[in-house]
Amino acid sequence: MRAFRAPKESLGDLNADVAAMLVAAASDIALALDADGNIQDLAFQQAGLPLELRNTDEWIGRSWQATVSEESQTKPELLLAEASERKVSRWREVRYPAARGPDIPILFAVVAIKGAARYIAVGRDVRATAALQQKLIEAQVAIERDYSRMRNAESRYRILFQITAEPVLIIDATSHRIVEANPAAAALLDHGAANLIGKLFPDALLIDDQSLSQSLSLAIRSQGKIERVRITLDGGRDYLLDGTFFRQDTSSFFLLRFSPQYGQPALPKSSDVNTQLVQFVESAPDGFVITDMDGRLLHANATFLQLAQIENMHQIMGETIDRWIGKSAIDFSVMLSNLRQHGTLKLFSSVVRGEHGSPVDVEISATTVGAPGQARLGFTIRNVGPRISGDGGDHAFIPRSREQLAELIGRVPLKELVRETTDVIERMCIETALKLTGDNRATAAEMLGLSRQSLYVKLRRYGLAEPSEEDSQLE
After folding, report:
1. For the whole model, what pTM was predicted?
2. Beta bridge partners of 296
3. CA distance 330 to 124
4. What CATH number labels 166-260?
5. Which CATH class is domain 275-389?
């Protein structure tokens, strides 16, 4: 926290009424506590919040600890102890029983009143922030699921292309040069697959009959297809050649398939590879962590220990991982909820808080492994601090920590803060969709569930469309 440099000169002598108004206006909930942690008085900024909390009319005179939910019983004592020692405690999330529905998370800090043996606890309702984070995660999971589906389909066709016994060539429809060849085609033409790339069709086939070679070239240029053409390659080998036209993004290609008439050439064998997975995980430059389903740490590699500034594994065995990971307890709750619901989590932006240093910006991916009843959570943690600090892109203004976001509270109305945060999330989702689709506006609009006109309006709103593009869209 950054305090006033000269509070007596800038604020003057504030009486109790003015101080009470300031505390109530700067927080969603404020508690006046005595030295034993009993509630002497309380204030709410909004009239609706006390109706959502359970039995607020009975709080005065009771211990603060007695009013919170069971899982937060130790938090009030920690906050009061920190305030006694440091005058101002760190922010901690405290959960309160709700009149209806799940517990309500309130972010609290406690300030010790000098010479009065009293404390002021100020709290902020963080449900809106948690809901926005949840929406962002759900959008990210949906985009990643679609991307994973396309990538898996591409992988299946890539494997089929590589292992098929029939020779296959991919020809650029404009230049008529070979852009890809499978191992069977390389063996057929007595070339390595890399040596075939860039060669002109049909010269690369080494066809003995030059008139046939010319007719193939004419057919592919004029008709766009080749059907069951019998060819004899150099050396007397006979094949039937079929060609099919297809498009990929903005380019056009031909797929040529050779059906052998007298047997098939043998494919080269792949060499076996020993990945040494355990050694890789232990020495990887990214952090690897294994926990149980409640987040209690079972194993971590050396990179994570270095990020968390821990000397050895024995110091952290059995500890919950949110002790080091997350800008607040909300981060880990969101991660855990998505892991239990979807089984995987990818590229979640968070921080690792070291034992003796400042937080480090990281990206976290995680998955659930193991059979039901013996399931574990696996996390990969990548340090992206240097990448973030060196990025001068459009998102440089986004707060990167809860403390930076907290500095806006009290200076910016909550509705404006939520609206701006929603705009940031919307812009990030649009940019991600455009990146995944190669800037294809129609596909991006379909991915986001928008009409193309709605997407164009949002592109202009966020300055993502060039002036020439805006003119053409309006036309």
Report:
1. 0.35
2. 320
3. 13
4. 3.30.450.20
5. alpha beta
